[in-house]
Amino acid sequence: MRLIKLEESITESNDRDAEALRKEMKERGTLMINLMSAAGSGKTTLLSRIITDMTDTKIGVVEADIDSTVDAEKIEALGAVAIQAHTNGMCHMDAGMTANALHAMGYDGLDLVFLENVGNLICPAEYDTGSGGKLMITSVQEGDDKPLKYPLMFIESDALVVAKIDAISYFDFDLEKFKERVYNINPRIKIFPVSAKTGEGMKDLENWLREQIRDWRK
Ligand SMILES: Nc1nc2c(ncn2[C@@H]2O[C@H](COP(=O)(O)OP(=O)(O)OP(=O)(O)O)[C@@H](O)[C@H]2O)c(=O)[nH]1
Ligand SMILES: [Mg+2]
């Protein structure tokens, strides 16, 4: 189990670091997706399902957390490449931290790398990590008003997973109202209602990921 302890990078321009990392990854043909959500929305469970399903795709995961190694251990147990990054108390990953973690993990020959960002809806949305795409998760127990309260992450993301859809009947989550609120602030976003437990909706999401890898390599 590999673990890297990170400090916020001291370079003056996060955007410059992000562009450099994107360029490097583009040249090597590896797509990085920045996966963001509140704590406990289902990021690691979704990634585990994707790794198990997408046997045609070589996947690596950078697990960013304030503490513990549980998420990286779960990913490694599935046979995927992983590294646990500790953010030294910080609530997000920046581009310099992401590059350090990625290089420590090594991503030669990988098609797709997920950065499982620190679980919260606010800080991760504000930092460009150098990823080629942004995927956000919100789960049905969080309520359908989150696009109104935390708009930036919804605006910034290319796609949105509505997670734990198997549990929707236990909550007052109105999927149509939620979609309308999301499309109001980001009309181009793709929305995937998904259950990582039952597999519902996973095929569409996985095909979208394959399409993103193809587009990245064009
Ligand atoms: N019913 C149901 N439960 C789910 C689903 N996906 C995840 N869960 C549960 O939700 C809880 C949190 O899931 P995680 O995958 O650990 O969430 P996370 O976003 O990685 O959490 P952090 O890394 O702590 O931010 C776990 O108890 C999962 O079993 C789902 O599709 N359906
Ligand atoms: Mg997790």
Question: Can you give a write-up of this model?
Answer:
This protein is an alpha/beta fold. It has a domain at about 5 and about 15-140 and about 200-215: Rossmann fold. It contains nine helices and eight strands. The protein has an eight-stranded parallel sheet with strand order 1-4-3-5-2-6-7-8, sandwiched between helices. The protein starts with a strand and ends with a helix. The structure holds guanosine-5'-triphosphate (GTP) and magnesium ion (MG).
Attribute tags:
alpha/beta, 8-stranded parallel beta sheet, 9 helices, Rossmann fold, 20% strand, binds guanosine-5'-triphosphate, single chain, 39% helix, 218 residues, binds magnesium ion
Q: Can you give me a brief rundown of this structure?
A:
This protein is α/β, with parallel strands linked by helices and 218 residues long.
